[in-house]
Amino acid sequence: MKRILLPAAALLLLAACGSTETPTAAPAPSSPHTGHSAASAPPPTSLRAGERFVDLALPQPYTPQGPNGGTDDYRCFLVDPGLTTTSYLTGSQFLPQNAAIVHHAIFYRLDPQQALQATKADDESPGEGWTCFGDAGVEGQTAWVAHWAPGAGETLMPGGFGFSMPPGSKLVMQVHYNLLETGSAGQTDQSGIKLRVAAGTTPLQQLDTALFPAPIELPCAAGESGPLCDRDAAVADVGKRFGTAAGEQESHLIEGCSAGKVTPGDTQHCDQPVRENATIYLAAGHMHLLGRAIKIELNPGKPGAQTILDVPQYNFDNQALVPLPKPITVKAGDTVRVTCTHDAKLRKLLPQLQKLPPRYVVWGEGTSDEMCLGILVVAAR
What we know:
Blueprint: E1 17-19, E2 51-57, E3 72-79, E4 87-95, E5 102-110, H1 112-124, E6 130-131, E7 143-148, E8 155-156, E9 161-165, E10 170-178, E11 192-199, E12 205-206, E13 208-213, H2 231-242, H3 244-258, E14 267-273, E15 278-286, E16 291-298, E17 306-311, E18 322-330, E19 335-342, H4 351-354, E20 373-380
Parallel strand pairs: 9-12
Antiparallel strand pairs: 1-14, 2-11, 3-6, 3-10, 4-8, 4-9, 4-11, 5-7, 5-10, 13-20, 14-19, 15-18, 15-20, 16-17, 16-19
């Protein structure tokens, strides 16, 4: 997903984190997750008052190709919802036309200057869209307003809330294509999205997406060996496949989360202080194929501590952004912790990974790399 060198929203600021002792691993699912879900999404729910649907899709099929000898292609496409008045994005349903190769998708709102940059990037790149590992490929802060990962259907924002869409707003549709599957070479995709848009005649409370990352320091499993089991070699390999900035991502997380101390282990966490008062309405966790468990907590170990999201048996094919049973308020000075457990032994169980050499796993953009990311949809208060 998104490359995170700095906070994605004013709500959070990277601070202290570290490694924890490995807990008892969650039991393996009876059929390990495959990395893709081809099930048809259910139809969208009925429109609410003031809403309408806007359907967008790639104008022609795109054929993914993994650059630099890799098996992952991050491609950005500029899409125009045609908004001429102030509006709000109140829901979305991504429609992966070829679920066998679509790993995830993120939609970023662009301001007019960024839209010009995106148009230039598109014009200068052959074929549809442009390469954009980890972000939208434009300068400045972009607003994350929608995303899809396997298991997600339509995502609805709470009534009275939405992502602000000023007149003329355009979107970057970033699609991560995973080409590890046998037979994926040469396949095409023409994905789209159904946006739920509300008129701005009645102002809604504005939502933001806050991202809470933690590092990954997962050594090769017992009995595994090879050149990439060396951490430095593995980090260099990420940079080779996805660029220098991607290769530096883990170092940024380690520096911001544990003052530069590397502690290898299955489980890592990161504590991040809240910078302003807000209310959390939806949450999701994102890891890749070696993920076992993810938890997002508020003020852990302190009076009034709460669990925001707890997924003790993570399934890559079920990553929907879910409404909280009850919205959770946070205030400046609170702490949000994200904790992830990964399992290198899953590499031998998953067909997509069995053919790859063992590696020391760090944060990386590829399906064979890993992430630890808490995703929260919030509103300032």
